[in-house]
Design the sequence.
């Protein structure tokens, strides 16, 4: 319980109106709980209101409890529609009840809260455990008005890449051929085709991601200026599925933990003077610059930027790299 303060005592039917009026005047004590006492409601106030109808309201002393202040750290959870996902490390420092309470206070319409326990690397899919609510299999998220259907626990999706999807799409020029080797459910391809009259070959090895990519193309069709061709292959086999080698003006390689292992594919797919957008997870960007130079000799790094922080001391960077005219 908190210390004694003044409270406005009011009938339950008049409580909402009284709370709004007191908040408007700045008298409402926001740090204290509004409590019920029988058929009355006790509203903590800083001082007695100057004008109060004693027949409707009464000022009394009370000892309400303090509101539980819970700091919600946005980077510690992802919001996908009406589902929140927290990382398992969050529960190492905070009780699950506290996490649930904090999220529901921030997002009262949540249907489920999941804990991301690990990531299965082959398809980069998360292993999710239900912490609260009703199991949810499918969610639809919006990015700049574009709709993306996601099957939870079946595909890779990171809502914190929304701005990066748009940023990269804005770099593409009309008429370009773009190959996205690890397209997932279509974040980069759909954004690109919504902004530019480009041809995007969108590939992903995960069959579920491939199916959702097709659905997401269809659901956004009216907004697309460009054309997306969905592919479901191992990225190393993509050169064999192109009409000719070195056809792409741009290649997107968003596989941060393993992107440096596909140098031969980039060389076969990308046209001379084309641009490779290479995503790399690193603790030292300058070490990664040396590694890029080692696996892609003669290629020139135009720029690099931090896309998002991955863990303390490490981040995912995008390297924009131009292929030389003659390798």
Sequence:
């Amino acid at each position: 319980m908190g210390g004694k303060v003044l409270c406005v005592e009011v009938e339950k039917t008049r409580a909402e109106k009284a709370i709004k009026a007191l908040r408007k005047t700045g008298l409402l004590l926001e740090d204290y709980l509004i409590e019920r006492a029988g058929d009355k409601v006790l509203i903590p106030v800083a001082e007695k209101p100057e004008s109060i109808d004693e027949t409707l309201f009464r000022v009394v002393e009370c000892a309400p409890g303090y509101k539980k202040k819970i700091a919600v750290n946005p980077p510690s959870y992802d919001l996908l529609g009406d589902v929140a996902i927290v990382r398992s490390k969050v529960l190492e420092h905070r009780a699950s009840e506290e996490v649930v309470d904090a999220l529901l206070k921030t997002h009262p319409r949540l249907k489920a809260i999941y804990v991301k326990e690990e990531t299965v690397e082959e398809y980069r899919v998360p292993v999710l455990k239900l912490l609260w609510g009703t199991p949810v299999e499918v969610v639809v998220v919006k990015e700049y008005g574009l709709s993306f259907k996601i099957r939870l626990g079946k595909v890779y999706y990171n809502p914190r890449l929304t701005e990066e999807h748009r940023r990269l799409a804005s770099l593409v020029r009309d008429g370009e051929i773009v190959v996205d080797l690890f397209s997932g459910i279509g974040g980069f391809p759909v954004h690109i085709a919504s902004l530019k009259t480009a041809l995007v070959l969108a590939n992903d090895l995960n069959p579920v991601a491939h199916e959702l990519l097709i659905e997401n193309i269809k659901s956004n069709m009216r907004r697309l200026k460009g054309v997306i061709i969905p592919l479901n292959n191992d990225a190393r086999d993509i050169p064999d599925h192109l009409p000719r080698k070195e056809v792409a003006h741009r290649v997107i390689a968003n596989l941060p933990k393993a992107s440096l292992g596909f140098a031969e594919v980039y060389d076969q797919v990308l046209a001379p003077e084309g641009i490779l957008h290479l995503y790399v997870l690193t603790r030292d960007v300058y070490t990664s610059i040396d590694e890029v130079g080692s696996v892609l000799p003669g290629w020139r790094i135009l720029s690099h930027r931090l896309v998002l922080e991955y863990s303390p001391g490490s981040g995912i960077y995008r390297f924009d790299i131009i292929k030389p005219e003659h390798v």
